[in-house]
Every structure is written in structure tokens, then in C-alpha cells.
Amino acid sequence: MAAPNEHQLKADLLQKYIEGQCTVEEKEIVERWFEQRKGTYPINRSEQQQVLRAVRKNLLEELRTSKPIKAPYITRWISIAAMLVLCCGMIFWYRSNPTKKQINRYVATTHRQVIHLPDSTIVELDAGSSLSLATDFNLRERKVVLNGQAFFNVKTNPNKPFIVHSFGLETEVLGTSFNVKALSWQHPLQVAVASGKVKSAGYPLSAGEQLTYDLKQHKGQIALIEPAHIGAWRTGTLYFEDASIEEIVKDIRWMYKVDIQLTGAAHASCRYTFNIKNERLDDVLNLLKKLTGVQYQINKNQIIMDSSTCI
Q: Is 141 exposed, middle or buried (0-12, 13-18, 19+ CB in 10 A)?
């Protein structure tokens, strides 16, 4: 397949990518296109909100055509919208008939949220996460899009697999409970199975197994995980097992919604096993300092942490 140039990408290929139907080669083509285009137009938060409101009406008109999207010939905000949609996977439900399907979107801003879906599936959505699904969910299929983290307790239905889309990857189950962590393109996607069986990114998983999938390298690794650790964030608990400073800080950033910048390079031997539960951020930082030896300072709303001092 020929790769698109800097300003072109076929709409059907973009849609396949959002739905998680691309081959490895097609994924690389789309991601290479996105890398070429990102950063072309600097936008602020108000512009992003404006773009997202207008995506359905304008961008999807472009996507329904069989012609390539040509950024130089469409308006500035439509080009931005294409990249925003590519990032968050918000157009998968338009696959059959874009003009008729409506969307339900659940957003957990500062607190966790429990969602009861029409098929009796229960979703516990972590703060800072969102879940999107079509209003006709469960009529013909059960598909959702997750950005962030959620624990799913899926109602069994052998005739309708439950499918979670996260950044172009697909997790499919018939009836089970599992946790999905899909924070961003920059972080590995993690799927941990508490009960039943799951297939994620082509990897079969059973209860007590966790897949860590590198979105950039398109590679996954399966490891055993304590069932009690799966979805422990729901009780305010973080478990770390042989974790690096970077891995620890990533989860602390997410749980406490705080900006932590790492400086210096941690030694490869700096790995730690511990847990925290419902601790204040100040206590967590002090614990981390005592346990790992890292030094930190607070500069306004940012925490700067030197990982080179770890022991």
C-alpha cells in the first residue's frame, strides 16, 4: 500500500484506524501521517472545544467521500478536527450511517463515576476519563470508546461481544470483568482480567493476566497480576511491583491529577515494590523520597523530581 504524502490520507483508512480494523502496515501509515501533521496548527482550549462541536457536521461530510482528505484545501479548523478525532477515537459509531447515529458520552471530571449500560454491564469510570457509545448501543452491537481508565463488569451475551476501543486498539469479551488503562498515545495500554477471558490487540488473556501494549512499537507483553490489584484504583489504592521511578510517577500523576516533571536518569536498578491507599499527595511524595531517595521541589503548580538520586 502506498503511503500518503504529508497532506493526504484516505478517509476510509482513517475510519478503519479509529475502529481498530487496520493491519499493522495500515496503522503505521496513519501514524506516520499524523506525526507529519501534528503541531502544524497551534490551538488553545477554546478552539479545541469549538472544533469538537463542529466535527460531526463538517468533518464527517468530508469522511463520507471516497476522496483523500487534502489539508491545504479544507479550512484550518477541519484539519485540526481530523487530528483531534484521530487522537480520541470519537467517530467509530458513524461507520454504518454517520448522519443518523447519536452519541452518549460520559465524562468523569474530578470524581469516579459508575455507569449502568443498557445491556446491564456496569462500568466504573476513573476521574479524568470518558466513555462514548452510540445511543443504539446493544440493539445490534455493543461497542464503546474509552479514553482514560475504567473497570468493566460485562453482562454475558454470546451473540453480542462487548468491544472496547482505545487509541485504535480493540478489546473484545463476551462476559467478564476487567480493567482497561488507556491514558494517552505516549503511555502503554494495559488490560488486566479479573474474571473470564478477554482478547485485546490480538492477545488472548485469562483471569489473573495483564497485557501491557506499546502503542508506538505495536508490541505487547503478558504478565501475571494479583487479582486483588486489578482495578484497585476504585478504592484509592495503587500497587507497585518492581516498578521504575517513571512508572510510579506516571500513576501518581494520573491518580492525583498533578504535574510532575522528571529530571535526571534513574539507574536501572532503581525498582520498588510498595502500595499506597488513600494517602494525601504530600504524604505520598515524602514516602517516595524516603523509599527511593529521589529529591523534589515544588514550583508553583509543578513538582520537579530528580530521579538521578534514586537508591
A: middle
**pLDDT score at 135:** 92
Give Cβ neighbours of residue 205 (< 8 Å, ≥ 6 apart): 178, 191, 193, 197, 198, 199, 211, 222
The answer to whether the CB of 70 falls within 8 A of the CB of 111 is no
Condensed to tens digits (0 to 9), the pLDDT of residues 128-156 reads 999 999 999 999 999 999 999 999 999 99
What burial class does residue 290 get, using C-beta atoms within 10 Å of its C-beta: 0-12 exposed, 13-18 middle, 19+ buried?
exposed
**Nine cell digits for residue 141:** 452491537
Do residues 276 and 289 make contact, with C-beta atoms less than 8 angstroms apart? Answer: no
Question: What are the C-alpha distances in Å from 142 to residues 127, 157, 200?
Answer: 23, 10, 16
d(CA 172, CA 28): 22
Task: Determine the distance from the C-alpha atom of residue 239 to the mean position of all C-alpha atoms in its chain, rounded to a whole number.
Answer: 20
pLDDT in tens, 64-82: 444 444 433 333 334 444 4
**Burial label, 52 (beta-carbon count in 10 A; 0-12, 13-18, 19+):** middle
Query: Is a pLDDT exceeding 70 seen at residue 249?
Result: yes
pTM: 0.67
Spell 91-114 as b/e; 16+ CB within 10 A means b: bbbbbeebeebeeeebebeeebbe
Cell 489504592, residue located: 237
